[in-house]
Amino acid sequence: MSALLRLLRTGAPAAACLRLGTSAGTGSRRAMALYHTEERGQPCSQNYRLFFKNVTGHYISPFHDIPLKENGIPMKKARNDEYENLFNMIVEIPRWTNAKMEIATKEPMNPIKQYVKDGKLRYVANIFPYKGYIWNYGTLPQTWEDPHEKDKSTNCFGDNDPIDVCEIGSKILSCGEVIHVKILGILALIDEGET
Asked: Which residues pair with 88 in a beta bridge?
């Protein structure tokens, strides 16, 4: 949380609930065109992994190698500096799905895998009338919640993971998709005693 606040103090508004940066979705296609994914293993199994590659076909880490902000020209000319408030988001869990997917921060090249707890694959429960996550869920690359730093808002230490994102647009995105998001707000949460 404090890492995100430091990031935002550099000129961007607050963040964590995010939305697509462009109305027609061209921003998401533009960002994803720079990265490709490769599946290994069977989905819904402990050996499933989704690896990332750059345009030259080299494996990259979504955690470390995808920039938080793209350098270069914005997708369309903005009437103001709004394009400067667009950040890359890596989709881990598509909207309306139940499998709890996450970047494997302790594995080489940090692929996306399904979260395992007590030896079992983790799924989120449906809350009627909805199925799974009601938004696209993911993370901001090159961010990190420091497990050695206590957050002033929660009085808890960081969870040693990138900053989580809820993308509240209307589209159903794919696991591993890299999209542009605009920051709308931030919310500090405590999960198992961590920020």
From this structure: 180
- Domains in the chain, ordered, with CATH? 33-72+83-142+172-182 (3.90.80.10)
Which backbone phi and psi does 77 adopt, to 5 degrees?
-70, 125
* 118 Ramachandran zone, left/alpha/beta (phi>0; psi -120 to 50): left
DSSP 3-state helix, strand, coil percentages of the chain (rounded to 5)? 10, 30, 60
In this prediction the pTM is 0.80
CA distance 134 to 36: 25
What are 139's two structure tokens?
């993370």
How many alpha carbons fall within 13 Å on the CB side of residue 125?
A: 2
Instruction: Specify burial of residue 173 (Cβ count, 10 A radius: 0-12, 13-18, 19+).
Output: buried
- The 10s digit of each residue's pLDDT in 132-166 is 999 999 999 999 999 999 999 999 999 999 999 99
Q: Which residues pair with 54 in a beta bridge?
A: 35
